[in-house]
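Z., the sequence and structure:
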Amino acid sequence: MNKKAALELSINAIVVLILAITILGLGIGFIRGQFGGLSEQFTQVRAEIKDQLITKIRESGDLLVFNRAELEVATGKKDTFYIGVKNTESNPDGDTVCYQIGVKCIRSLKSDNSCTPDIQGDAGNNIVVGGKVDGQGADQVTWFQVFDTVDIKNLDVGVYPVTVQIAKGKPDTYAMEIIVAKDSQNGDCSRGGVFTRYQSKQFFVVLS
């Protein structure tokens, strides 16, 4: 009887193990399929945004566009939007022209607040908070992650992501400005040239 019971117990254990492995495999396959679908959807959305910005910049004639004029973000949380830059020049020695991109925080809506609450006076406003402006990077705070220099093909449009993450700040509405500068000699980014202002446009960040 003991041998029979042990045999039945072993068979049951094997059956349970097979069922567990089967269910685990199905679960992994399902999760992988879900993640794969989400990744594919994200790629499609990103491609759609890129196409929309390229169409917008070509139809409007603007040199700088973005897909959102107002961002609502929570402190510490990441968000991403996209900008499009139109290159109206040709590089005489190559295929691309170098552009510099930077973001400034101009001021807050409330007069008793500033872009950097811990800094008193004018130093707390009109500061670089991402990328580069006139060769200057973010020195007080970094709110935005953006390619500070990009190569855009001759007479083409470049579309780039901009990630915002404000680690510290008072809840308020902030006037921001994206500033784009162009290599003065229409060279590419490998030569490290001198940049001149090309285009700028304001947008708003609502911080909660």
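Residues 1-61 form one domain. DSSP finds one helix and eleven strands in the chain.

Let me know what you think.
H.
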